Each structure stands twice: as C-alpha cells, then as structure tokens.
Amino acid sequence: MNNFTYHVPESPLEAANQKTSDRHAQFIAGGTNLVDRLKVFLDKPSQLIDISKLDLQTIETMADGSLRLGALVTNTAVADNQDIRRHYPMLARAILSGASQQIRNMATVGGNLLQRTRCPYYYDTAFPCNKREPETDCPAIEGMNRNHAILGSSDHCVAVHPSDMCVALAALDAEVEVISPQGTRQIAFLDFHRLPGNRPEKDSNLEQGELITGVKIPDTSKNSSGVYLKIRDRASYSFALVSVAASVSLEGEKIEGVRLALGGVAHKPWRATETEEFLIGKSLEENTLTQAAEIALQDAKPLSQNHFKVELAKRAIIRALKVSAQGGGVV
Ligand code: SF4
Fold first, then answer.
1. Closest CA to 161 of 100, 105, 98
2. Is the CB of 157 under 6 A from ligand 1?
3. Name one GO molecular function term (predicted).
C-alpha cells in the first residue's frame, strides 16, 4: 500500500470538490473492493476521501412512488428492506446471492456500482492488462477466459462486470444520481457502465470529481414476481458464470410486461431489450421461450474456454422467465 493523505468531507459537494482538485484522489466508503486493490498496489491514490459518514444512508419512497437508495446504504440494508423484498424482489435476491454477510454489511450501493472486474490477470501485476495499464495487452483473450465475456467485448478487453445488484438495477430501469462542482445530474442505469471498446480502463461514464449520491428505482418497475437466477461454480461466495434478472407480468395468457437483464456475460450488466420486445403479446409457450433465449444470445462471441456460457445463458433465461410468470420465488 502506498502512502496517501486522508480527508473526511462534511458534505457530498465538499467531497466532489476535493476529488476535483486532486485527480489522483479516490473516494472510500465500505472499502470492500478498494482496500483489496490498495494492498496489491493496483490503486495508488494520493488521497483517500472518506465519504462513509455522509448523510447518504437512507432508503426513501419519493412523491412519484419511486424508491431512492442513498449511495451509502449498505447492501444488507437494501436486501433486508421490506418494501424492496415485496416490490422489487429481484433486487433483494440479487444482493443476497453475492459476497458474504460480512461483506454485504460493509458494501454500499454506490460502491457496488463501482467495483472493478475480477479478471485474474487484472489483479496479477506479473501480467500485462489493458484495463490496469492501457495499451499493454489482454492475456485473457488467448489465456484463461472461462469466466469472461461472451457479449459486447473488444480486442482490448473481454472482462465481465462482477456485480449481481447491478444486473437487477439494469432490469429495473434505475437511475444513478451524481453530484459534482458543476451541479447534479441523473444517468440512466444502462448508460452508467461502459463496454470496453478501446478504453477498457474506464468502467463507467462518471466524470472526474463526480460522486454518486443515490440510485432511484421507478415505481413502474415494481413486480412482486421478479426473480434473480445466479449460476456459479460453487453454491456461495462466488461470482456469476451467468445470471438472469427477470420479471414477467401477464394479461390473461399473454405477456404484457417483461424485464430481462443478464450478468456474467459482458463488461456491463446486459439488458436484453430485443428479447423483451419479442416477448410482448406472446404466450409463454416452450417454443416462444426458446426463440426468446436465442434472440438474447444471437450476438454472442464466446472465447476458447467459455462456449458453455451461451447454452447456459439460454437455459437460465428460460427458467427465470418461467418462474417469474408462475409468481416468482426462489429460482
Ligand atoms: Fe485485463 Fe480485461 Fe484482458 Fe482481463 S480481460 S486481462 S481485465 S484487459
């Protein structure tokens, strides 16, 4: 760990001003990913701005019926919230499928959005890595890539985003609120994270100095039958090979609303909008679900070791849609 100075701001704006004035400063809240990176010199901040005590720790229902999660609400508090369990169960289940209870007690909403990939080459400084050091190399493309992307990757990076919570937030059409010295702005969740392109070192579209203050989930995305299905190598404390956040609402026999997002397959949470459009107005027949899954994976470009993810994702989509249509619950 390198030497750094330590600053405790009294307001979100002061925190953003402090970060703007020092481009090598970093925010710290729960520290569940940052401290790991500090220990192995992946991140070498000049300054840590400790935002953990700022007043961003509440879950509120807004006048328009939306739910606002303060950026410093812990993952445990979100997953335990009764309104979230009732109205946005895919979000609670996504969080509970990730990490351990101890980590969820420390990890925050804002930090979850900003956690970095778990690609092993990124953490091992004996290897080059375009995400860690631009214009070096991506050894995963020809190397160990079993856990890597099958959608939206580039010749520069094939990493996946590790979050479970973000997959549910992508499906729920959440919005990210940020503050900077220039004011506040809202970023649609699907625009928050980036595909790697030729700038894999940049995970999100946050600008220098911007601080996440909250995440808003619209009232219209309430669905008590929403599900989160996570497929992984072991039953707990493991990142997704493939995950699916899905909710289906029926009008009689026909699908009148559907939300579908995938995790473990791309550099960002992957919303399957074309599949959603295909399903609207159709009935839940096996053939229809099979076609829907094919559409979701039609652009997949698997790597040498992860062809299995394509079929796995298709089957997971079908299962998650069926369970949600039957009323939800544990998948
Ligand atoms: Fe680095 Fe991305 Fe390649 Fe992993 S996949 S080695 S994070 S550039």
1. 98
2. yes
3. oxidoreductase activity
